[in-house]
Amino acid sequence: MDSSGQGSSMNAGVADGMTLPPGVTEEEAEEMQMELIKVEDEIETLRQVLVAKERHAAELKHRLGISPLSEIKQNITKGWHDVQCSNAYMRTSQTLGDLNRRVTSSNLYLTASATLEDIGRSDAYKRTQETFSQAGQVTSAAFSSMGSAIRSRFGEMSSNLSMRHSLSMPAMRNSPSFKSFEDKVENMKYKVMGRANGENDHSPTSNNAPM
What we know:
This protein is mostly helical. The chain has helices spanning 3-16, 26-64, 68-85, 87-104, 107-121, 123-173, 176-201, 204-207. Helix content is 88%, strand content 0%. It starts with a helix and ends with a helix.
């Protein structure tokens, strides 16, 4: 359907039963309807042109080897450059610079800096540093001495246990209990040996003398 057909149908609709806003005549309504149709047609045409242009741009980027990631990087770089060149960014940078200069040149800042420098050069600060340094050295030496003492103590305990073990074996052999146990073993040995010899003397082979 062309614009004239649409315009005639709109005119018929306005004339037939369309409620007009207050202060708008039928002639003004018909003109606005025609203008609206024209604008909508232009929007649709521009939309089609935009789609075609975007498709053509994508083909060119593909042929140039421009990936979506590199395109995003370029957009970010360009956006940051635009921000830096903007008036708001420049005014903010200038304001921060002025604020920094005011702070560093203020009497309070200068007094605080001078006070810190005086503290760093004072004898009390130097004595405090020396005290912490000496305390650290003493603590390190104490831990080292404690470690040596622990190692020495373990060595003594190990050697004492070894000596006790070597000395306890001869003493145990000479004890009455051990000797009594040895005597019992010897008696049992003789009894077993004696029984064995008696059985050999009364065996049938020893009684079978020649007739």
